[in-house]
């Protein structure tokens, strides 16, 4: 696995002394040496291309200060621009003596040919190997220290605020973190002692250049213009690829990366790059060297570390390749950018016969086992944010994971008939294997904290906050990651209400006739069944259920039906008021609503205007003694109780038999108190210890019996997750006494919003218990 890494060092210090891990091995050609990092290319905006080679690199290796002409350069970009000083390799690419001290080297006589030193004077000269203090002077290595909560930064004189070191590892799939401390002990310590997310979602396409530049700018690829590792710009008729010189032209790069933002506001910035043809252990070793070096320089309580990946990785092979020649009679008139996704354009831009719509039509549903789906780019899922750029071709092929697309057979195996890869990336960014990592460690990050997953466009604003910078315009939501910071800098404010939530008049329903001939998938039987079940529960338990009462389909004005929508922080319901249009409707949460439970929803042009709010009702007491599996920290929920879930603590499933479904008699809930609590649904297994995780983040392994407790709104995604991981799971969901509604429920939570309307609220709030349903992939 080839891994590329990027390191940023950002500081407000007027003097920035940098110690870097140097790239081992011989210098590569200019086309090879920096072929994996999109961020470095942006230095074409910062530095001049220097033609003169006068000067020396002695005491200048990897300097962070720009060298003006006619001086030569000694930074890591000089190989790319062919502007290195003649002695750059001699001084800056030393590999002799390796990069760490050994017992034999402690106290050695200084050898200037060594990459780092273990002599007695190395601390004074600032060129010790990173393990010098721990190996030769008896200090405790960083890895062996206990987790330390750094409440206040401790920086040497000259630092205005803590600097940031960001490391990006190419292809670091989120699930690699499960290797644990036996394989990646240094990375695992960063994770456990700092702030981390189960995964970070990359942007589509999940390729290196688009995502590294998205992290640097906070922009979607369609916004910053780097829409792929290879692309064509029809405006200036040029091609971009990661090994060509055209990538050095600033015209390709839009937006403002973090290092430009920093330099413009007086903050020093630098980027470093080194390739590693190695596995996770070597990456972890480099990070260990970094942390030991920071401790040796007394910067380990000063620097903020951010470790991320650009995307994940998926198994792939040439044998799993679709060929357009099997679907199209003529592939000579098109250019296909092949691989884990496909982009098609006309070979001749003046070809009047090229018809993108016809190509999509001819490639759609042609084979029962077709492993790609064609789109016009404007029809791609909007969540991908991959249409609004002229560099994105009109025809786009979304390829099934583990598969590739190619134009012809010979194009998939050009290496003497051999397949040149065993894995790839670029697939849909919602696929688990495409997710990558986020770890934050340092004085500005919270201690031992886990945050929900997020998208990588959010990191730019975080870096700006940590450095005291004003962010350039970007696609992120400023303040959305405040939960990972010890002291958030930017506190978003909400606009004040311009009007009170009082009834202002009737709301007119839209005509349900949309001009379609599609069969109405929501049958009246669904609602009749729901009504029957709801009334049965009401009458048998004599309870005031948190059901939603929807207006009759025939009545088009809420004002005339006397129905009022009541929205509270813990429940959603529509309660009938008195027929008088002038009398204030009751907001009592405990009225009896068994006369009318559910009707087929009416589509409204706007959200009902007669909305009032009230606080959640007090919980009802219950004489039942069974203790529920999920409970808040302030009370112990019991079977039959009606509570609001404010937080969930882990609990272990004690009684269910793995042989079949069982009624777990879980407590009733009105509604989860906040969006956050809907993510606290836990997974339980019959093995010792509690296995808990976000329903959408956990990767299940074989051989373990597990139980899923998703909120109904996440039911469809959980089912897809179960099938995707090919696992057998007992799914526990809210239910009415009979399970006949379950297929209809599954349809309702996956149907288009206009078909569901308020009935989603019914299904998410009207549970009176739980039933385990055994699902088999």
Automatic annotation (TrEMBL):
Pfam families: Phosphodiest, Somatomedin_B. GO terms for cellular component: extracellular space. Residues 53-96, 97-141 form the SMB domain. Residues 577-590 have a biased composition (Polar residues). One of its GO terms (biological process) is immune response. The keyword Disulfide bond applies. One of its GO terms (molecular function) is scavenger receptor activity. Gene3D superfamilies: 4.10.410.20, Alkaline Phosphatase, subunit A. CDD domains: Enpp (cd16018). The keyword rRNA processing does not apply. Residues 573-594 are annotated as: Disordered. Keywords: Disulfide bond, Glycoprotein, Hydrolase, Metal-binding, Repeat, Secreted, Signal. Its main location: secreted. It is found in: Secreted. PANTHER family: ECTONUCLEOTIDE PYROPHOSPHATASE/PHOSPHODIESTERASE (PTHR10151), ECTONUCLEOTIDE PYROPHOSPHATASE_PHOSPHODIESTERASE FAMILY MEMBER 2 (PTHR10151:SF21). This is Ectonucleotide pyrophosphatase/phosphodiesterase family member 2-like. It comes from Sinocyclocheilus grahami.
